[in-house]
Amino acid sequence: MIDVMVAGIGQTPVGEHWDISLHTLATKAILQAGRDAGGLKPDAMYIGNYLASVVSHQSNLGALLAEHAGLTGIEAYTIEAADASGAAAFRNGYMAVASGYVDTAVVVGVEKYTDLVGPKSDSTLAQATDYDYEAVPGLTPAAQAGMLMQRYLYDYGIEKEVLAGFPILAHANAVHNPNAMYHKPITAEAYRKSPMVCSPLNTLDMAPYADGAAAVVLTRRDLLCGEDCGPTIKISGSSVVIDTLALHDRHDMLAFRAAGISLDRACRKAGILPGEVDFLELSDNFSIYAVLALESGGFANRGEGWKLALDGDLNLNGRMPVCTMGGLKGRGHPIGASGVYQIVEAVQQLRGQAGRNQIPNPKRALVQSLGGPASTAITHVLERID
Q: d(Cα 338, Cα 346) in Å, to the nearest integer?
């Protein structure tokens, strides 16, 4: 297969963009990535989006975004995989270039969650669950996470306050990310006093749903603009694994099986072990998901993933930095776009462009995006080529 390289990245600030349309957000990110790629013209566009057809009343995003970005005539369409939609679009762009089907592809993740307000927004998010057996009885993604969190605390005999380290870390790392939604740290006391959403899950256990767009240009090595482009970033591993959609169909609800298998396969493809990466961007849309993903990936024993945040191993100065630009919790969670934001932030780290959040001399990044409670798990390994 052809080596696939990241030629350019672009992103908009994450937030509540009431006055900006979906296509304007996406176009800003696409054009920025194109400029960063030295003007490379894509042959195809792969769009990660989850809610536009319901929330923004807009389908056929391929035609819409290609037109507004000045790219009519190319292949373009939307890929949906709930919260992992952006990562799924990136996977499609990677495969298109790696197979030789296209020379250059642009991947864009975009979401305008605030186009719908009020209680109806919960029902749109519940589309990621099993409709007949979970959504109809009223189960939401937050309720799913609350159930998993309650089971985890019960099984391992711990108090919920031990999970505070994950949102505290995320907010601390978001402080110096100019595109993050939040720029203030939080404390353990703030976590303890945070209002309940779905007991024992509280407000600070949840990443805020938001608007945003991020884009990446992918191409072959020989089409890169040259040494002036800075460090070369290669996608050296990629994997998608599916688990059951409904939690009740799983033998072990607390085993994010797809997340572990996907991580292992991506690392095998890259020819490395998971511990050989320099940092990890994971799906921390709920605190408990960060814990279960780390345990399933082999970074901690079952029932002990929460200790990583307490021990400081996930701090920027630790041995395995995680969510280095704030993750979904601190940066904000523009749902279908989050997977592309994760890739963009990993590229910033590998290029040495992460500002005050920069990790010293990183060589490899592991990026994992989850759709729902790891019903879909998509993992990529990015590597800096010197």
A: 12
Nearest to 341 by CA among 185, 216, 182: 216
pLDDT in tens, 106-165: 999 999 999 988 777 888 999 999 999 999 999 999 999 999 999 999 999 999 999 999
Separation CA 226–CA 376 (nearest Å): 36
CB-based contacts of 172: which residues, under 8 Å, 6+ apart?
185, 330
CB-count burial class (<10 Å; 0-12, 13-18, 19+) for 2: middle
Residues 301 and 187 in one domain: yes
Q: Quickly list H helices, the chain.
A: 22-36, 61-68, 85-98, 120-125, 141-156, 165-174, 188-193, 257-270, 287-296, 306-311, 327-331, 338-351
Q: Can you tell me whether residue 228 is helix, strand or coil? A: helix
Element containing residue 201 per DSSP (H, E): strand 201-202
φ, ψ dihedrals at 270, nearest 5°? -80, -10
* Residues 17 and 88 reside in one and the same domain: yes
Closest of 117, 127, 142, 119 to residue 285, by C-alpha: 142
Segments forming the whole domain that contains residue 201: 138-207+234-385
Total Cβ atoms within 10 A of residue 36? 21
- Residue 354 — pLDDT band, cuts 50, 70, 90? very high
Residue pLDDT, tens place only, 300-320 = 999 999 988 876 555 544 568
Residue carrying structure tokens 């060589």: 363
pTM exceeds cut of 0.85: yes
Q: At what angle do helices 287-296 and 141-156 cross, to 10 degrees?
A: 60
Which CATH number fits the domain that encloses residue 267? 3.40.47.10
81, β-bridge pairs: 83
